[in-house]
């Protein structure tokens, strides 16, 4: 059902361009601030923001950047407000927000001169084909490794996701909680695309059974794999770990056979009166200077300008070369609409019952080690409450507005059904295991 | 035991860390309890949190401003290290700020400027004009060391433009750089008795040292430990001061927004709660900073050992004390009753006219500054990618910082100028090893 989107579209059209609305809209924020001020809405962390603000200020001292910080799930309503809340530029790693604002005609087309960088890498559409937004950086998914701990357990470094189901990894994997950590749903989806809905979820169920879940606002995956924790493998987006490594952490990071890219992008709002300054900022982000900033040890994001990799430290990952070799096969747009649903689905199926899930997997692994045949229990524990077709139908209807890591005040009715399904499933698995002597 | 022997023992006992550890100011104390570890990680997240303009769905982190300097604590204390002042005349302040006040009665808290308060907030949330902009013109001056080596020092001259709320007539100003945040829990635990005892101790070379006594609105007298003029009695207060002054985040210790009476848009702006920083968040930030580990000094070399002896012989250690002991009351059990080496006495010293900001703060006069702790000073270049020192970042390296010392430190500074080049380098090597 598309009613919510249609409603949003009307609101946005009114907000961005409606002449009739102009008379009642509040005065633009910048009207009270110096006209050289550029309001940039972003969700980038302070380490990124301060570095780019300083460098842009050096290159363009005539402009002043005013950074307005909001999480991606708040950016959408913020940019839907009258006059787009005075925002001139949106700069963030939230492809769904860019797509939704584009659908509501909230961006300006960028000039051709700012659209010369590769629009795709591997399976990922980096920049908008119509030129409403362009990628400024990338991040890819993989495994943080504590090789010393792997050696202690006589484990090889995993090369792809299925290897993490090995019972010997139990307790040694740090996994971001997909219901709470913003970058995790894309990671889930990489595996679902690569192995299909059914097999992919089975992998995640078993990996989660082996893993400790890392939430938001506490420790990082790199803490768990590093000296603060006990994990040997951390599932992560690369820059967290690459930055920790560049700053001295004794870790390693590898990209599995199936990986993918999440782009950070930038767009200029339809309502900005500061087009020249906004384009200067976009141009700076894409310039050789701006792109080289991404290589700094505190950031370690992947530049979108291929030539910048010549400046990268020796041995750095080059996603363009990896894509040429067949890696980074994840199609980021094909299943983009279901990311919010995946996060919601994880709450009752993986996150909330994580402790009993771990216990069931321990029983399965222990039973199988004793030679018991537990295929029925495995099959049951890996079932999901909805199939891929139902997810495809449900996602745009129920979860179009839910972005990754967005918490909602109360679960929806369908989530209560999923929760009941998962609880019944666990009981059934426990019965099957008991019957099998596990 | 002579002081330099004690210092050498301390140095020899310290573990060696890789020079490249740019996270050296981010590590927790070893052996945190599970509960402490949770608090440490929560505090770390808050330290890096970019605050959000209210209202927001993220009610835990909204309430930025309405007037503020930066979005996050880490903006001014990058990697828990030092901020810097702009080198270029067209560069904006990013990790530095300008304190303001009007002349007031001696011994009292600074009198806020009626239009701008105690700090120039360069930024405002949408709809609230920022208060103005500060730029720096550097004035250069030259000097010679006793062996004839010529040097150039720079002194900041402020250019305050685009004032949005009228002139700053009569305001006292003080440019400040965000300081390093390590070891705060140990400093917090230095007892009043220790501070008084250090102040009372007779010292040579005209060195005195006073405690900043802060009389609060409740009439109670507290001793200053934190802030460049020791104007905050404890870590929790210092954090609450910075949250309001730098980010515009209210707390139980500062329940009002940072708006002056004439700042109408500021006063009309929505808040992020009353207060905006919860007690739990203030606790988490306090515990986080208290539990940060002080990185060990680098392994001693013949040069650093010689430099350490010179540090004592020149009289640097009269104020930059290599040994303090924390009291029984501390924010964590690990911090109580500890010997530690901050290279500070936490006391106020007259640092001479050249470093004076002429802005009194309680009992700290316009020439007084609290002895800056030197622990971690040798890691600033690697961690923060600059080598600016002193309260306003005017010193471009450690030698310049020494040469700016005057007042009670004049004798030590003269002795430094008389050293041979080799001895000067040994002393600097020692400082770089901290």
From the alpha carbons, calculate the radius of gyration of chain A and give it in angstroms: 23 Å
Number of strands of chain A: 12
Q: What's the overall geometry of chain B?
A: globular
Q: Sketch the topology of chain B as an H/E string, one letter per element.
A: HHEHEEEEEHHEEHHHHEEEEHHHH
Which ranges of chain A are low-confidence, i.e. pLDDT below 50, for 5 or more consecutive residues?
Answer: 1-15, 17-33
Biggest sheet of chain B: strands side by side, in what order?
1-3
List the domain count of chain B as a whole number: 1
Number of helical elements of chain B:
13
Largest sheet features of chain B: 2 strands, antiparallel
Mean pLDDT of chain A: 90
Q: Structural class given helices, strands, pairing of chain A?
A: alpha/beta
The total count of strands of chain B amounts to 12
State the share of residues found in helices of chain B, binned by percent.
25-40%
Classify the oligomer.
heterodimer
**What gyration radius of chain B follows from the Cα positions, in whole Å?**
21 Å
| Silhouette of chain A | globular
Uncertain runs of chain B: 1-19
CATH architecture name of one domain in chain A: 3-Layer(aba) Sandwich
Biggest interchain interface, per-side counts: A-B, 39 and 45 residues
What is the residue-mean pLDDT of chain B, rounded to a whole number?
Answer: 94
């Amino acid at each position: 059902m598309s009613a919510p989107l249609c409603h949003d579209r009307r609101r946005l059209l009114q907000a961005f361009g409606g002449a009739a609305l102009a008379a009642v809209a509040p005065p633009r924020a910048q009207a009270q601030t110096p006209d050289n001020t550029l309001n940039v809405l972003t969700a980038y962390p302070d380490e990124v923001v301060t570095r780019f603000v300083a460098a842009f200020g050096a290159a363009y001292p005539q402009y002043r950047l005013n950074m307005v910080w909001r999480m991606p799930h708040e950016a959408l309503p913020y940019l839907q407000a009258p006059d787009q809340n005075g925002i001139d530029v949106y700069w963030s790693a939230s492809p769904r927000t860019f797509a939704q604002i584009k659908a509501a005609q909230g961006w300006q087309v960028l000039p051709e001169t700012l659209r010369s960088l590769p629009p795709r890498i591997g399976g990922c559409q980096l920049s908008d084909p119509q030129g409403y937004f362009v990628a400024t950086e990338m991040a890819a998914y993989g495994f943080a490794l504590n090789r010393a701990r792997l050696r202690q357990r006589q484990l090889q470094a995993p090369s792809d996701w299925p290897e993490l189901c090995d019972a010997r990894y139990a307790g040694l994997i740090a996994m971001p909680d997909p219901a709470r950590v913003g970058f995790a749903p894309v990671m889930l989806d990489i595996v679902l695309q690569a192995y299909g809905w059914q097999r992919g979820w089975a992998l995640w169920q078993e990996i989660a059974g082996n893993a400790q879940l890392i939430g938001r606002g506490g420790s990082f995956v790199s803490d768990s794999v590093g000296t603060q924790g006990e994990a040997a493998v951390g599932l992560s987006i690369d820059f967290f770990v690459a930055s920790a490594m560049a700053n001295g952490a004794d870790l390693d990071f590898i990209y599995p056979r199936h990986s993918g890219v999440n782009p950070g992008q930038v767009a200029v709002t339809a309502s900005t009166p500061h087009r020249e300054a906004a384009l200067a900022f976009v141009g700076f982000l894409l310039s050789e200077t701006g792109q080289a900033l991404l290589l700094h040890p505190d950031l370690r994001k992947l530049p979108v300008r291929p030539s910048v990799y010549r400046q990268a430290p020796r041995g750095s990952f080059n996603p363009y070369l990896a894509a040429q070799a067949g890696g980074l096969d994840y199609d980021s747009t094909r299943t983009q609409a279901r990311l919010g649903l995946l996060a919601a689905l994880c709450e009752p199926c993986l996150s909330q019952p994580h402790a009993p899930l771990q216990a069931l997997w321990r029983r399965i692994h222990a039973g199988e080690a004793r030679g018991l045949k537990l295929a029925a229990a495995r099959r049951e524990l890996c079932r999901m409450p909805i199939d891929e077709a139902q997810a495809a139908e449900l996602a745009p209807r129920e979860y179009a507005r839910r972005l990754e890591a967005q918490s909602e005040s109360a679960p929806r009715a369908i989530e209560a059904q999923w929760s009941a399904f998962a609880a019944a499933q666990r009981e059934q698995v426990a019965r099957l295991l008991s019957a099998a002597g596990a | 035991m002579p002081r330099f022997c004690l210092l050498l023992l301390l140095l020899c006992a310290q573990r060696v860390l890789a020079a490249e550890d740019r996270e050296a100011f981010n590590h927790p104390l070893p052996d945190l309890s599970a509960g402490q570890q949770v608090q440490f990680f929560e505090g770390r997240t808050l330290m890096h949190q970019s605050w959000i303009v209210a209202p927001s769905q993220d009610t835990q982190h909204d309430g930025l401003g309405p007037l503020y300097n930066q979005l996050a604590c880490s903006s001014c204390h990058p990697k828990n290290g030092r901020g810097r002042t702009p080198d270029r005349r067209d560069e904006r302040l990013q990790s530095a700020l300008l304190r303001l006040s009007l002349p007031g009665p001696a011994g009292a808290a600074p009198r806020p400027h009626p239009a701008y308060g105690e700090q120039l907030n360069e930024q405002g949330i949408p709809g609230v004009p920022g208060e103005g902009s500060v730029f720096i013109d550097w004035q250069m001056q030259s000097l010679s060391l006793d062996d004839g080596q010529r040097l150039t020092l720079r002194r900041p001259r402020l250019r305050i433009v685009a004032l949005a709320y009228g002139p700053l007539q009569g305001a006292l100003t003080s440019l400040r750089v965000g300081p390093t945040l390590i070891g705060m829990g140990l400093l917090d635990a230095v007892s009043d008795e220790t501070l008084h005892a250090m102040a009372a101790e007779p010292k040579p070379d005209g060195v005195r040292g006073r405690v900043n006594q802060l009389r609060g609105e409740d009439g109670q007298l507290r001793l200053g430990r934190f802030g460049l003029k020791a104007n905050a009695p404890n870590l929790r207060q210092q954090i609450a001061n910075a949250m309001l002054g730098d980010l515009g985040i209210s707390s139980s210790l500062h329940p009002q927004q940072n708006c002056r009476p004439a700042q109408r848009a500021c006063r009309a702006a929505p808040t992020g709660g009353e207060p905006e920083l919860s007690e739990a968040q203030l606790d988490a930030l306090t515990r986080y900073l208290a539990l940060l580990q002080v990185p060990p000094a680098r392994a001693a070399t013949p040069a650093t050992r010689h430099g350490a002896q010179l540090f004592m012989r020149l009289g640097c250690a009269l104020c930059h004390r290599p040994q303090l002991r924390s009291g029984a009351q501390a924010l964590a059990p690990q911090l109580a009753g500890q010997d530690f080496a901050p290279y500070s006495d936490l006391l106020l010293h007259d640092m001479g006219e050249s470093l004076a900001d002429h802005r009194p703060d309680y009992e700290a006069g316009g020439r007084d500054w609290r002895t800056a702790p030197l622990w971690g000073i040798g890691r600033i270049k690697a961690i923060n990618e600059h080598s600016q020192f002193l309260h306003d970042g005017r010193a471009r390296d450690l030698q310049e910082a020494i040469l700016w010392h005057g007042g009670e430190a004049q004798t030590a500074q003269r002795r430094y100028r008389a050293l041979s080049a080799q001895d000067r380098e040994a002393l600097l090597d020692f400082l770089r090893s901290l």
